[in-house]
Design goal:
2 strands, 74% helix, two-stranded antiparallel sheet, mainly alpha
């Protein structure tokens, strides 16, 4: 990828390095304090992860990284769990009808959609991975609470 850095200069970013660094960066952002602007930034990051997973179908090296990097899959799963915990504990009082409600719903959907994109290719293959995870009870509780809100 080539990004415009400023004053007409360009910076090259390796897609492989980006997909390896992005989940950890989003976890760090999730741990920081803030409200709606942080959630909007996280939504952009989640959408970028979705785009990278779609790109992997046409980029052999990226697909290989996404399939073979166990550490990446663990980080993605942790990111999903912590995102759902955050969304489940977010207080929406007085925000009904605001952009926050839409942002909340989009983040829940994007979080759950990352499961078949990074953890396993089919939804039926996601179940054994989740059951083997030590935080499966927390995931289930927070997923239901986040969807309910």
């Amino acid at each position: 990828l080539r990004l415009k850095a400023g004053r007409g200069s360009f910076t090259r970013v390796g897609v492989e390095r980006l997909v390896l660094a992005l989940p950890l960066h989003l976890l760090a952002c999730l741990a920081s304090r803030g409200a709606e602007p942080r959630l909007r930034y996280l939504l952009h990051g989640f959408r970028l992860l979705h785009s990278l997973s779609d790109l992997a179908l046409r980029h052999q090296k990226l697909e290989q990284i996404m399939l073979q990097e166990v550490k990446l899959r663990e980080q993605i799963l942790d990111l999903i769990i912590y995102m759902l915990i955050t969304l489940a504990s977010t207080d929406q009082d007085g925000r009904i009808g605001s952009s926050f409600t839409l942002l909340h719903a989009a983040l829940v959907a994007c979080s759950l959609y990352l499961l078949p994109a990074f953890v396993a290719t089919e939804w039926s293959d996601v179940v054994p991975v989740l059951l083997a995870h030590p935080k499966v009870e927390i995931f289930m509780d927070s997923a239901f609470d986040a969807v309910r809100r």
